[in-house]
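Q: Here's a chain of 399 amino acids. Please give me its 3D structure as tokens.
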Amino acid sequence: MACSLFSGECFGYAPWVKSIGPYRLLAELGRGGMGVVYRALDERDGRQVALKALLELDALGLERFRREATLLQDLEHPNLVRVLDVHLDPPVPYLACELVEGQTLAERVARDGPLPWEEAVRLVRQVAAGLAEAHARGLLHRDVKPANVLLAPGGPKLADFGAVKAFGQESLTQTGALVGTPSYMAPEQATGDKHRLSPRTDVYGLSATLFFALTGKPPFKGETMIDTLNAVLGSPPPRPSRWVADLPPALDALCMQGLAKDPPQRPASPLALRAALADLSQGAAPRASRYVAVAVVLACLGVGMLAGVLWGREGAASEASQASEPPNGSRRSSSRRSCSSDARRTSRGRGACTPRPSSSTPALARASPTAPSPGSARATETETWRRSSSTSRRTATGL
């Protein structure tokens, strides 16, 4: 059956259309302003693909489609949806991509709620790796959002490069026209200033996607598109920690940085954002390890202190059991050694405990052991001690 290129009958409006080129249509997966995506079977090799075909075939739409197909044809990365086949000729231009089984990030959060922050960080880091590969090839995505993140079994994949633009390439969008999704587009996109677009524009979209993964909502969402755009341009971004109680402060700050109004204040590239997220996720484990190490050290210190106390008590008990007399109660000069009277008597003649004369204590050096005592013994000393220390008291009277 013949169909008009501009009627759309060949691209999904007519239910009797069963195939496009070598691809047999199995089911419709999605529909947008410019095209429709089918689950299709490549009858040449039996492989299922995601087949994107144009709904309307005007000159501008066809050029956009051609750019997307040409720019993505050789782009390959584990976190990007891969282009398998391109057909740009009438009557039906199409683009065949790998079919990713699974749901989008937007569908997952709508069904199960926001992701744990660790999972959100891991997912965004992987998407950032794919986006960095596109940037390395000189391509801006310009529509990074949760609905374009496919959750494949082997990891997330960034899809739908329908708004892709090469660095330095003349834009097909007129100045002032909007490309992207308002809740996830950077302020420079919201103003339609195509000359200010840069890798930081995609960093904003990726940060807004991170915000959604953490909170379950976009950073800005008004009742109308105009309200949303006004918020994107004029309202400060909310902190995700308002909705996530246990969010690490560093992640909260990084998300805010990625949503900065001024592009130079954002991370310079997806790789810079990915590195910051890696530092954050790796920092959690060392901190936990340090807590364990501190606990072990404190436990060891506690055991050591306990052992020291027990050792001190044992030593004190041993000294007490071996002591035969109380300490000398008389005042002594700090410049000489002191001995008990028993020790003095046993050591006299060898000079082991005999005080050495000092020029600072001449009276003590000349004191006679037979000098009279003034009776200065302390009242608390026992009679036995007074008798055994009489010699020491007579020596002290020389002062």
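Q: Can you summarize the key feature?
A: The radius of gyration is 43 Å.
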